[in-house]
Automatic annotation (TrEMBL):
Pathway: Cell wall biogenesis; peptidoglycan biosynthesis. Residues 1-27 form the signal peptide. Residues 119-236 form the L,D-TPase catalytic domain. This is Murein L,D-transpeptidase. It comes from the Bacteria. One of its GO terms (molecular function) is transferase activity. It comes from Nonomuraea zeae. GO terms for cellular component: extracellular region. GO terms for biological process: cell wall organization; peptidoglycan-protein cross-linking; regulation of cell shape. The active site is at residues 198, 212. Keywords: Cell shape, Cell wall biogenesis/degradation, Peptidoglycan synthesis, Signal, Transferase. SUPFAM superfamilies: L,D-transpeptidase catalytic domain-like, PGBD-like. Transmembrane segments: none annotated. InterPro entries: LD-transpeptidase, LD_TPept_cat_dom, Peptidoglycan-bd-like, PGBD-like_sf, PGBDSf, Transpep_catalytic_dom.
Length: 241
């Protein structure tokens, strides 16, 4: 699904980095919404029209890529976390006034690499957030879990669980599930050695991988569709609880 934008406003703040304000075309017309939906507090396991509205808004904001089925499942939770991280909220499962309010406003985003490629992937280790840009516009936001930053020895393989910081490019793609000594990966996009962005069934709030960048499964499908070999990947920051 392609979301068209009526206008994009860029302006400088503080340190001179641009902030992008996107106004979706659909935001200028009133949607049919359940009465009082924004006063509802939603939690994992809830279902109904308010959850469908939540999923539609998350999808319009480029956070959610699952089915609009009205069930607050794990993939919906991951999308809520991505929104909260992007808006500098503390990630939590409950969807209350703060989240509804954020969904009702045009998203704002500060690029990690303002002068990077027009089409690129940015990985923010501090916020554990991945963003894909097309023509310098963010088109996908995802909650991620990166390297746990510990020494490990698993199945005879030892190393340091670190996601390297730097400027890279996608070097290889592996569709579907692949399994190695350190576990299983879905729709892998390698960008430095054996380190890849890939879908996973385990994407906790804290860094937990051997160095790869884990994404929710449904989001990884969309990522694999749009990111090709040679695309720039910028990794920045450091995680602190």
């Amino acid at each position: 699904m392609i979301i068209k934008f009526r206008r994009i406003v860029a302006f400088a703040v503080g340190c001179g980095l641009p902030i992008l304000t996107m106004v979706p075309a659909h935001a200028e017309r009133k949607a049919e919404e359940p009465a009082g939906s924004e006063s509802v507090v939603l939690r994992p396991g809830d279902h109904g029209e308010s959850v469908r509205l939540l999923q539609r808004r998350l999808h319009a904001g480029h956070y959610y890529y699952g089915r609009i089925h009205g069930v607050y499942d794990e993939q919906t939770k991951f999308a809520v976390w991505a929104l909260q991280k992007n808006r500098r909220m503390r990630p939590k499962e409950a969807v209350g006034h703060e989240v509804w309010h954020a969904l009702g406003k045009p998203p704002r985003f500060r690029p990690l690499v303002p002068n990077g490629g027009a089409d690129r992937v940015e990985i923010n280790l501090r916020d554990q957030l991945l963003t894909v840009f097309r023509d310098r516009r963010p088109v996908l936001f995802s909650h991620i879990s990166t390297g746990a930053e510990v020494h490990y020895c698993d199945n005879g393989h030892c190393g340091n669980a670190i996601t390297p910081v730097g400027d890279f490019r996608v070097t290889n793609r592996a569709p579907g599930w692949t399994t190695g000594a350190l576990g299983s990966m879905y729709n892998s996009l390698y960008f430095v050695g054996g380190i890849a962005m890939h879908g996973s069934t385990k994407v906790p709030l804290q860094p937990a991988s051997h160095g790869c960048v884990r994404l929710p499964l449904t989001t990884s499908k969309r990522l694999y569709e749009i990111v090709k070999i040679g695309e720039p990947v910028y990794v920045r920051g450091s995680y602190s609880p």
